[in-house]
Amino acid sequence: MSVLDNFEQWKDFLGDRLHQAEDQGVDHATINNLAYQVGEHLATKVDAHNDEEAMLRDLWNVASEEERKSIASMMVKLVQNEGTDR
Question: Taxonomically, which superkingdom (predicted)?
Answer without folding.
Answer: Bacteria
